[in-house]
Amino acid sequence: MAAVGRSHAVRWGVLNVAVVLYALFPVWWIIALSFKDPSTLTDGDYIPRQWTWENYRGIFQTSEFTRALINSIGIALISTTIAVVLGTMAAYAVARLRFPGKGLLIGMSLLIAMFPPISLVSPLFNIERILGIFDTWIGLIIPYMTFSLPLAIYTLSAFFREIPWDLEKAAKVDGATPAQAFRLVIAPLAAPGVFTTAILVFIFCWNDFLFAISLTSTNRARTVPAAIAFFTGSSQFEQPTGSIAAAAVVITVPIIIFVLFFQRRIVAGLTSGAVKG
Amino acid sequence: MAEIVLSGVTKRFPDGSLAVQGVDLDIADGEFVILVGPSGCGKSTTLNMIAGLEDITEGTLSIGDRVVNDLPPKDRDIAMVFQSYALYPHLSVRENMGFPLRLAKVDKATVNQKVEEAARVLDLSEFLDRRPAALSGGQRQRVAMGRAIVRDPKAFLMDEPLSNLDAKLRVQMRTQIARLQRRLGTTTVYVTHDQTEAMTLGDRVVVMRLGVVQQVGTPAQLYDLPRNLFVAGFIGSPAMNFLNATVEGSILHSALGDLPLDDRTRQALERQNAPREVIVGLRPEAFEDAALAHDAHGPVITATIDVLESLGSDVYVYFTQEGGPAQSAELEELATDSGLKDTGAGGVQQVVARLDAATRAREGQPLDMRVDMSKAHVFDPRTGTNLSHPENAG
């Protein structure tokens, strides 16, 4: 019996290690690359023989990368904030209210999420040029918001549906205005959902390459994924591999911080104990 | 504290269905009124309309001399206890109970004092800093009560507040609620589907069916003088026995045998042009073991006892009768609601009688029982009206 249990555990352990290695190997590779000295860059070793910060120093020396980093952070944060605020309100309406055209609204937002972004890039390019928002922050924030809102509405409406309606009725009877009921009762309970959605939306905006490369032309609004594509080596004979690796590692860090920071809030099963026993 | 007056209150849902039809009800200041009926009878909708959680389609509702049809719940100054308790899970017990006061912008010291006072009354003092998730069902129920009483509202509205508790706790909480209401003297409207709760708690009980008020009265009035078949069948446990019968002069021919009508009932039937085919209703206590009967009034019937249940103080005996069960829409609905239909006992006419514990009745043995005809009710099977009700009898 114990033997069976142990072999079972061993099998699972091996499988888990394999999966984790498979998932993390590329990450390690890029980290290793970013710490290699240009002369050993192509030696094929997975552990740098000569550890160096040279590549990191290099990318922060030019304004190309730092400017892109500021763009990325600004655009992703603003898009996430707007998408989550609008998404929260829309999801609340979808989950709670009965109004004409609700099915249509949900269908439309699903439709938007299903469009392949590549098919919209050319029209967006032209529209933004005509409107004069090409190569600006707002020019990226708008498409990011549009594509992340359906996701936000879906995730959040599922959370709202889980909140017992009685709580809201109770708040109203206790003397709350609809706004107070939302702010003091519903919003705190929906917080885990809001944070989950915020993370998903932020990651989507942060990682996007297609819109960033198509709707920008200069450092004004170019985000990091697009900027990396424009990296050049220190001379025309040198590949920018080291800089790209370093930049890739740098832009992974905010995501990890973001997830770690909000994870604790997501986990809490806040609604337990609201109703019944 | 205030009186609540409903006149012609009607609720029509957007799909056109009528949930509540023309309810007229005067609830006096400090009165404890129960709305009772099977599920879907409109009792909860009526309560929600009083609370302001549902719009009133027609009619007027006033609380304390003020028409409140168009006032949002927060301006009606009422407190509500929900079946699910609806405690705010992210707030402590103290914050939950203080929530209405906080919204009313009462200063902190007063809030604390009122919450602690309510907690003392409800025996919750040691739990004030816990979250609802850490409380038992009964404690949560008390927190919900506490949240209602801290504010000293004009009225309490309670929507099946005890139905999530286990049977024993329910009985305890029932007496506690009754005591609390007497002490505070606050007008209370209480919704339940449990007729026992309705009978024990209320000053007055409103029986509803299909959105229409069937009868309003004290528990005793509903029990002794039901206005129709539905009320007669709904109130009382075990339920009233209903038998098909044919009127012939002053005699009721029924499966139990011939039962003589008393003069008052006979005259009432004549005056109302009663149909020949009627349903006669006899409560279990209308029967008496003939051997133990104190007076010799009333007809004696003989039946073979199927089942005997001894409760110590009383004995219930069950026997079946030929002739099939009495039929009417109301009885049909009651059978569905009580689950009787699912037990398969709907096919034969079962009669239950409550006898004195001294009875010598035995299962499988015939027994002579005397029927007290002054306690008999005669119903019109088509309309369900109680033809022997004093108001109809004159």
Helix content, binned percent of chain A: over 70%
Total separate domains of chain B? 2
CATH fold field value of the largest domain in chain B: Rossmann fold
Stretches of chain B where pLDDT is under 50 for at least 5 consecutive residues are none
Task: Report on the architecture of this protein.
- The complex is a heterodimer of chains A (277) and B (394).
- With 277 residues, chain A is mainly α.
- Chain A has helices at 2-34, 54-61, 63-96, 102-114, 117-131, 137-162, 165-173, 178-207, 210-214, 224-229, 241-267.
- Chain A contains eleven helices and no strands.
- In chain A, helix 3 (63-96) packs parallel to helix 6, helix 3 runs antiparallel to helix 8 and helix 7 crosses helix 8 (178-207).
- Residues 268-277 of chain A have low confidence and may be disordered.
- Chain B is α+β, with helices and mostly antiparallel strands and 394 residues long.
- Chains A and B meet through helix 7 and helix 8 of A and strand 6, helix 2 and helix 4 of B.
Give structural attributes.
heterodimer; A: about 280 residues; mainly alpha; about 0% strand; globular; disordered C terminus; B: about 400 residues; Rossmann fold; OB fold (Dihydrolipoamide Acetyltransferase, E2P); 2 domains; five-stranded antiparallel sheet; about 30% helix; cell membrane (chain A)
Short description:
Chain B: This is Sn-glycerol-3-phosphate ABC transporter ATP-binding protein UgpC. The complex is a heterodimer of chains A (277) and B (394). Chain A has 277 residues and is mainly α.
List the helices and strands and how they pair.
The complex is a heterodimer of chains A (277) and B (394).
Chain A: H1 2-34, H2 54-61, H3 63-96, H4 102-114, H5 117-131, H6 137-162, H7 165-173, H8 178-207, H9 210-214, H10 224-229, H11 241-267
Helix pairs in contact in A: 1-11, 2-11, 3-6, 3-8, 4-6, 6-8, 7-8, 8-11
Chain B: E1 4-12, E2 18-27, E3 32-36, H1 43-51, E4 58-63, E5 66-67, E6 78-81, H2 93-103, H3 108-121, H4 137-149, E7 155-159, H5 167-184, E8 187-192, H6 195-201, E9 204-209, E10 212-217, H7 219-224, H8 229-234, E11 241-248, E12 251-254, E13 257-260, H9 263-271, E14 277-282, E15 287-289, E16 300-304, E17 307-310, E18 314-321, H10 329-338, H11 340-343, E19 349-356, E20 366-371, E21 377-379, H12 390-393
Parallel strand pairs in B: 3-8, 3-9, 6-7, 7-8
Antiparallel strand pairs in B: 1-2, 1-4, 4-5, 9-10, 11-12, 11-14, 12-13, 14-21, 15-20, 16-20, 17-18, 18-19
